[in-house]
Amino acid sequence: MPQEAMAVLSKNPLFTLVRLYRVVLLEGQSPAAHTLIKFWALSVVVFFAGHAWFYKLRRSFADVV
Question: Is the pTM above the cut of 0.85?
Answer without folding.
Answer: no
